[in-house]
Structures are given as structure tokens and as C-alpha cells.
Automatic annotation (TrEMBL):
<dbReference type="InterPro" id="IPR046373">
    <property type="entry name" value="Acyl-CoA_Oxase/DH_mid-dom_sf"/>
</dbReference>
<feature type="domain" description="Acyl-CoA oxidase/dehydrogenase middle">
    <location>
        <begin position="131"/>
        <end position="238"/>
    </location>
</feature>
<dbReference type="Pfam" id="PF02771">
    <property type="entry name" value="Acyl-CoA_dh_N"/>
</dbReference>
<feature type="domain" description="Acyl-CoA dehydrogenase/oxidase C-terminal">
    <location>
        <begin position="250"/>
        <end position="396"/>
    </location>
</feature>
<dbReference type="GO" id="GO:0003995">
    <property type="term" value="F:acyl-CoA dehydrogenase activity"/>
</dbReference>
<protein>
    <submittedName>
        <fullName>Acyl-CoA dehydrogenase family protein</fullName>
    </submittedName>
</protein>
<dbReference type="GO" id="GO:0050660">
    <property type="term" value="F:flavin adenine dinucleotide binding"/>
</dbReference>
<dbReference type="GO" id="GO:0033539">
    <property type="term" value="P:fatty acid beta-oxidation using acyl-CoA dehydrogenase"/>
</dbReference>
<dbReference type="InterPro" id="IPR009075">
    <property type="entry name" value="AcylCo_DH/oxidase_C"/>
</dbReference>
<dbReference type="Pfam" id="PF00441">
    <property type="entry name" value="Acyl-CoA_dh_1"/>
</dbReference>
<dbReference type="InterPro" id="IPR013786">
    <property type="entry name" value="AcylCoA_DH/ox_N"/>
</dbReference>
<comment type="similarity">
    <text>Belongs to the acyl-CoA dehydrogenase family.</text>
</comment>
<dbReference type="InterPro" id="IPR036250">
    <property type="entry name" value="AcylCo_DH-like_C"/>
</dbReference>
<dbReference type="InterPro" id="IPR037069">
    <property type="entry name" value="AcylCoA_DH/ox_N_sf"/>
</dbReference>
<dbReference type="GO" id="GO:0046359">
    <property type="term" value="P:butyrate catabolic process"/>
</dbReference>
<keyword id="KW-0274">FAD</keyword>
<dbReference type="InterPro" id="IPR006091">
    <property type="entry name" value="Acyl-CoA_Oxase/DH_mid-dom"/>
</dbReference>
């Protein structure tokens, strides 16, 4: 089976539509938020743009076809992600984080749960948000740690008519919703029981807005993605029906790992979008500026070489990230490894490459009126979120390498 191929006609059309929407609509996000002072204000200012994204069917096209949406593959997601992220990171991340919020249902939900909880995300109207409440204050690299480690502190306790959830979450995209009363749907991880060996039993429940009892403790002022919010929230005595448990008790760790494997591949695509935007800006700058000299700066070898290196890095990361998405779609043996490569290499390459391009432009790139510093601040998040490269992703890669069955050739084309 050959897995590197041209995009299908439908994917080419999706790419063209995504690029047009990004240029027509998402290009207006930064001007709309530029003068606002807080993350909350900027996030609320993105609501009309997010609503347009939903209305145009892009959120629908991120939901897999078996669940009533339009997505046929992870590659479909990659096509949209590159075009959106090349223009605006904020609304883009709100949309893709909503799909992450729904992914536990895609992975472990039964047909009844999918029908009940996905309907508002399939309607192409309004501005519905979902969030996967996994990360906690203090970090979540050790969610499965046994006692006496804290590990995952959120509790999912059995009650007469279902479950009662209590706990705090942090760095969960849009989890407070537009109204600070919670997202339209949360999937929440927590400890449900302790086994006889004190190993934690991590489970995941669906928490719709009507069941949320939320306190927004803080909304962080982040250096990048400044109109996308990742608050600290507390959930108090949230009563959940018994059939809102996803999968079985103790299945949470596997669901978390599956959900964040697909997103790892896409973070590499986010990196491509930011790198592409930074390259295009710097190339045009180098063509038009002479810095007071006789020649445009592109005519100098050092600048030309730096731009050549930058473009090579874009092509390398794009090839890796798209390859990782295709491996996900084909359920290949090396899919998890390739996803980790996409996430770690793509995110860290983006930070370095954009920094190098700022050196090409010079001190003017430090001015917020030019976009390079914004691209860099956005890129800085990529190695840190969606499972930090040091605390989570390299650890996952290490575990793969330590397996007795590991074969370094599993990532080759089949």
C-alpha cells in the first residue's frame, strides 16, 4: 500500500475553501483583538469569527464521518490546519481544541452517547465549544502515578444515581465557555477507584453544560495565542448520570493516549502554518527592503541562504507531519512514533526557524507592528502544550524505544 500520494479532489477543494476562508475571515482576527487588554476580552472578540467558521461547515468537516460529520481522515484535518494557522492561531486553536474535546466520545463513546452529545456540533450554527479537561494544576505528566503521588487529583465518585465529580483543571482550552459558565460539553478525566495495589483507576466522563457547576479561578494572560483562553477551573459536586461514563472504569489512560496521539501529528501541521507565514513575510521583506544600501537585502548571500534553510525546514516538517497524519489514517505500526516525531520535531523547528528569520529582518522584527514576534510567541506554545515535549512526548518516545518488540523500520512506507 503506497501512502504518500496527491490530495484527493475533495481535499484539494477543502484546502482551497480553507485558504479562502482564512484570507477573507480569519485575517480580520488580529485587527479585531489588537487593542484589547485581557485574554477574556480578546477571546470574546473572536466569537463572530468562530461562529462564521461553524456556519461555513469547517467544524462539521473536522468531525469524522462515522459520527455524522464530514471528515474522512486525519489528512483532512491537516489540510484545514495548515491554511488556518498560517493566518490566525486563535480561532484555529479554539476549533481544533473543540475536536479534541469531543475525541473521547469518538474513541470510547457508544452510539447513544454520540447521538445525544454530538448533535449541537453537527448543526453548522451557533458557536458550540467542547473541551477535554485532562490537565491539572501542578502538571499532568504523571496522571497514572500510584499513591502516595498525587497524580490525577480530580475525583469521579459513585453516587446512587450515577457519579459525582470534583476537582480542578488547568490549561484546558475554552473550558469556561463564552459565558464563564462552562463549555457546551466537557470530557473530564479523574480517578474513580483505587485498586488493591493502590494503582489509580483513571476514568473519563461526559459533562454537558447543564451538569456543570464551575468556578473560573484564573484566566491566564499568555504570551502567544492571546485570544485563545486556557483557564484554571474548579468543578464542584457535578452530578452526572451513570451512562455518561465513557468506556469502562479504568479505561481513561488508554483514551487519553489515543486522543493525544492524533493531536500530536496535527501540532506539526500547526508549526507548518506558522513557519509558512513567517517565511512569506520575511521573503517579501527581503525583496522590498535595502536597509539604506544599494541593493535589496535578498541579493546578499547570507540572507538568501537563511531563507533557503527556512524553506527546507518547512518542507521537511510538512512532509513529516502529513506523513504522520496518513499513518494515523492507515493505522500503521509506526503511527504513534511518527506522531511524536511530528509534534516534537515540528514544534521545536518552528521556534528555531522563526527566530532565525527575525535575525534576517533585524531589530525591526522586535516591533509588534510586524508579525514575526507574534508568530514566535505562538510557536513557543507548540513544544509546551498538547503534552509537553519534555515531560510527556519524549517520555512516550522513550517508552516506545524500550519495548522489546520495537522495530525502527516500522515507520517505513508499507
Amino acid at each position: 500500500m503506497v501512502v504518500l500520494k496527491n490530495l484527493s479532489s475533495q481535499q484539494l477543494e477543502l484546502r482551497n475553501r480553507s485558504r479562502q476562508f482564512a484570507n477573507d475571515v480569519l485575517s480580520q482576527v488580529n485587527p479585531a483583538i489588537k487593542s484589547l487588554h485581557t485574554s477574556r476580552e480578546r477571546f470574546l472578540a473572536t466569537a463572530p469569527f468562530y461562529e462564521s467558521l461553524v456556519k461555513e461547515g469547517f467544524l462539521f468537516n473536522m468531525i469524522p464521518q462515522p459520527f455524522g460529520g464530514g471528515a474522512t481522515s486525519c489528512l483532512d484535518m491537516a489540510v484545514m490546519a495548515e491554511e488556518f494557522y498560517a493566518v490566525d492561531s486563535n480561532v484555529s486553536l479554539t476549533a481544533f481544541a473543540s475536536i479534541l474535546g469531543l475525541s473521547p466520545i469518538f474513541i470510547a463513546g457508544n452510539p447513544q452517547q454520540a447521538e445525544k452529545h454530538l448533535s449541537i456540533f453537527l448543526k453548522k450554527e451557533g458557536k458550540p465549544i467542547a473541551a477535554f479537561a485532562s490537565s491539572e494544576p501542578g502538571g499532568s505528566a504523571n496522571v497514572n502515578a500510584p499513591r502516595p503521588a498525587v497524580g490525577l487529583s480530580t475525583r469521579i465518585d459513585a453516587a446512587k444515581d450515577g457519579w459525582v465529580l470534583n476537582g480542578s483543571k488547568q490549561w484546558v482550552s475554552s473550558s469556561c465557555g463564552w459565558d464563564n459558565k462552562g463549555a457546551d460539553l466537557l470530557c473530564v478525566s479523574g480517578r474513580s477507584e483505587l485498586s488493591e495495589t493502590d494503582d489509580p483507576e483513571v476514568s473519563i466522563v461526559i459533562l454537558p453544560k447543564e451538569n456543570i457547576n464551575i468556578e473560573v479561578e484564573d484566566i491566564f494572560e499568555t504570551v502567544g495565542h492571546t485570544a485563545h483562553i486556557t483557564p484554571r477551573i474548579s468543578l464542584h459536586d457535578c452530578h452526572i448520570p451513570k451512562d455518561y461514563l465513557l468506556g469502562s472504569l479504568g479505561q481513561g489512560k488508554q483514551i487519553i493516549e489515543q486522543a493525544f496521539t492524533a493531536t500530536a501529528a496535527l501540532v506539526g501541521v500547526f508549526a507548518v502554518g506558522l513557519m509558512r507565514a513567517a517565511f512569506d513575510f520575511t521573503l517579501n521583506y527581503a525583496k522590498s527592503e535595502n536597509k539604506g544600501g544599494l541593493h535589496r537585502i535578498l541579493d546578499y548571500q547570507a540572507v538568501g541562504y537563511a531563507l533557503s534553510d527556512a524553506k527546507m525546514q518547512i518542507e521537511a516538517v510538512r512532509g513529516l507531519a502529513y506523513r504522520a497524519c496518513i499513518a494515523q489514517d492507515n493505522n500503521e505500526k509506526g503511527a504513534h512514533e511518527l506522531a511524536l516525531c511530528s509534534k516534537v520535531y515540528g514544534s521545536e523547528t518552528a521556534v528555531k526557524m522563526i527566530t532565525d528569520l527575525m535575525r534576517v529582518v533585524g531589530v525591526d522584527s522586535y516591533n509588534k507592528d510586524l508579525p514575526l514576534s507574534r508568530y514566535l510567541m505562538d510557536a513557543l506554545a507548540l513544544p509546551l502544550f498538547d503534552g509537553g515535549n519534555m515531560g510527556v512526548r519524549r517520555n512516550q518516545y522513550h517508552q516506545i524505544l524500550m519495548s522489546d518488540s520495537y522495530n525502527s523500520l516500522d515507520t517505513l512506507l508499507e
